[in-house]
What does this fold into?
Amino acid sequence: MSRLVRPQTLRGFRDVLPAEMSLQNELVRRIRAVYEHYGYVPLDTPVMELLPTLVGSGGDEADAQIFQLLNPEQQTVGLRFDLTVPFARIIAQYTPDPIKLPFRRYHLGPVFRADDPQPEQGRFRQFTQVDIDVAGTESIAADAEIVAVMVDAFAALELPRGDDGPPFYLRVNNRKLVDAFLAGVGIVDPERCAHVLRVLDKSDRITDRQLAEELREGRYDRSGDFIPGVGLTGGVVDALLDFVAVTGATRAEVVAALAGHLAPSELSEAALAEATELTAHLEALGVAEESARFDPSLARGLAYYTGTVYEGTLAGGGVGSVVGGGRYDGLVSRFLDEAVPMVGASIGLDRLVTGLRNLDVDLGTGADRVQVLVLVMPGVDAAVSSGIAAKLRAEGIGAELYVGKDQGKVGRQLSYANSLGYRAAVMVGRKELEADQVTVKDLRAGSEQRADIADRETYRKAGQTGQISCAREQLPAAVRGLLDDGDAGR
RNA sequence: GCCGGGAUAGCUCAGUGGUAGAGCACCUGAUUGUGGAUCAGGUGGCACGGGUUCAAUUCCCGUUCCCGGUACCA
It folds into this structure.
């Protein structure tokens, strides 16, 4: 029995090590630039909220996914499970002053769900969302703008185009269309409508036959569990499946075709009007048809969406959706008597990273890491090297001082620099001190020039390959010249 | 949540009712202030708790975690 504490992460949680964190930083930098370009402003909120803020009016299952804890005052608090609910609270709490509507904000931060984690598929109990939302407008222009922002944000990632389509695309729908269809066949019970939407939401994961079975009486899954069905009858199921299978060459064509499947009603007309207006705005915004398709089967089974819904996919990423969102006009009414309409979308950063890794995408990150190691030479006070490093930094050149063991062993230090891929090593030993010089070693050139040497002795004798000595005051210029040269070669 | 499978070195994996191995990684060395490759040597492990047994890493039960499926997902 060991007295040591075993180092481990909590189930469903993970550490993000430097290689991935660099990538995340780069992704966020690009995404944020696009968000800001559209006029979204930054906002942050605490990861914890009082439980009543988070707990919805309906759904014990939803509440079960909230991490709960006690604060020192013995109040039950919960970790936020998305950034949307805190945004609704912000709107309720800070309008009309200091926040004026309409209000666009972006928000990046961790959210928590006490789910069954599936790390390989990018499902964790803590994950990072990068949200944008607009509060205080019913205009469909806002719904369309969210789509355009997402398409632009992913364009900024400069992903390689696939063989059969764009690397990223959104599916877009309006839940009022399905609602209108269901109302047309006499289904108006919200519970049943929600169930239908949940089943339709699986349409890309299960076969048409399984879909039909779940809409009827239910089916047995592979493990033998029974999945209860909606209980619709044959004719309605067929009509519904026809409805959600409608396709077309353009978004406008899909919407026009859907009109033919809807029984005339006020609801149908409103739904079609919204969908038509959305396609017009997308067109005006220059959103390519292949980047945002209209898909009547998209449901996003979640209860609080009231109109437009979106889902974004990384083609070939193997992680499901990386973007989700839609219009939710009822959320603020939990906090305020008046309704504040909202629409927004969220990028799942962890899934995006996983997807990019599956696609072998290289965003050329690592620019945030220093390229220069200052060695501590034998017989020379380490403070000399500290001073050299400080000089470089003062000139705007990132530099790391060697602080590992065996200071003074040049080979060990160069080996360290080599294993981390540094570009240059700076040496000030006794020889340099006497001549008031510094030595700058180009690690890449040295490596290339000695690559074919198989004999150990010869290799060692060629050790000084790629290095130059110069006057001390010329050090920054010498290092900079080497680094610039390296960037050009990348 | 439910069904099934798994857990052996830092990593990927072999293997056994009598306390275990490989490859890679890591460390040391191959004379002085020079990286890589090579060569020689070395460190390091049977998830946790209980049971059966003369003896358990191996068989059984439980726990935790991981994987696959399924359900759910604001």
